Amino acid sequence: MKIGIFDSGIGGITVLHQALLALPQARFLYYADADHVPYGEKSREEIVRYADEAVGFLARRGAVAVVVACNTATSAAIGFLRGKYRFPILGMEPAVKPAVQTCGDKRVMVVATPVTVRQDKLRNLLKRVDRTHTVDLLALPGLVPFAERGEFDSPRVRQYLERTFAPYDLSRYSVLVLGCTHFNYFKDTFARIFPPGIAQVDGCEGTVNNLVRVLRQTGLSGPGEPGAEYYISGRAVTDAPTLEKIARLHRRLGEMLRY
After folding, report:
1. Which of its termini does the chain have fewer beta carbons within 10 Å around, N or C?
2. pLDDT in tens, 15-73
C-alpha cells in the first residue's frame, strides 16, 4: 500500500512523521514542491496547478490515497483535486474547533499563511465553531522561508515573531493554533514567546487519524514495504546530504512533541 503526502516544502513532513507511527506497514511517497515554495503568497490558480501536478505524479507512482499536507493547498485546491481524481484525497484543516472547545475564558490565536487566512474555507470554519468570537487570525508569511532554510530557533526568528505579535496582549490567549504544517517546527520558539502554559494545537494528528479511518472504510489498508520515499518537485531524493537533512527534520519533530 502506497500513500502519497504532498506539501509545498518540508512542512508536510510533520504529517508524515505522525503517519509513519500510525501506519508502520505502509509505504509513503512524500512530495515536496520545493521549486514553488512558498505557496502562501501565490495566486489560487497557481496553487491549483502545482497541486494538480503533485497529485498526478503521486498517482502515477501508485498512491492509493493522497494527503494534501498543506493548509494553503487544501484551502485553494482540495475541491478541484477531489473532482478530478478517483481515489481518496484528504486535506488539512486548522484545529480551530478543539481550540475553541478548550480555551476556557481566554482567546484563541490562529496563525497561518496569508492565503489560508484569506480563503473562505477558514472563514466558513470560524462561522461554524467560533460562536463567541474568541478567535483571532494572524498571517505569518515570513515563517515558511525560515523553515525551508532550517532556521527554527534563531535570534532572527524570535525577532520576527516578537515584532509580528507585538500588537497583541498574549496574556489573553490560552491556545495557539498552528494553521500551517511548517509552523510545527517552531513550537519551542512559540513557547518562549507566549506566556507559560500556552497550548499549541495543529491538525496533523486529526488528519492522520482520518487517513487511517478512510483507508479502513474503503478497504485500501494492507501490508506493504514500510518506509518512505522522498521527491522534490518530482525528482527522487537519493543523495546523502538531502537524506540527512530529512532525518534531522524528523529528529526535530520528535523533540517538538513535548510542546
Report:
1. C
2. 999 999 999 999 999 999 999 999 988 999 999 999 999 999 999 999 999 999 999 99
Q: Is 103 a catalytic residue?
A: no
Query: Same structural domain for residues 191 and 212?
Result: no
180 and 114 within one domain: yes
- Catalytic pick from 65, 180, 198, 228? 180
* CATH number of domain containing 23: 3.40.50.1860
Mean of the per-residue pLDDT values of the chain = 94
State the catalytic residue, choosing from 15, 16, 23, 70: 70
Domain that holds residue 218: 2-92+204-256
* Residue 223 CB neighbours (<10 A): 9
Among residues 179, 202, 225, the one where a domain terminates is: 202
- pLDDT (0 to 100) of residue 120: 86
- Domain shared by 102 and 170, yes or no: yes
Residues 139 and 167 in one domain: yes
Whether 180 sits among the annotated catalytic residues: the reply is yes
Characterize the bridge pairing of strands 107-112 and 27-32.
unpaired
How far is residue 134 from each of residues 101, 104, 116, 129, 247, measured CA to CA in Å?
A: 11, 10, 18, 10, 38
227 burial class (0-12, 13-18, 19+ CB within 10 angstroms)? exposed
Confidence of residue 115 (pLDDT cuts 50, 70, 90): confident
Is 0.85 topped by the overall pTM? Answer: yes
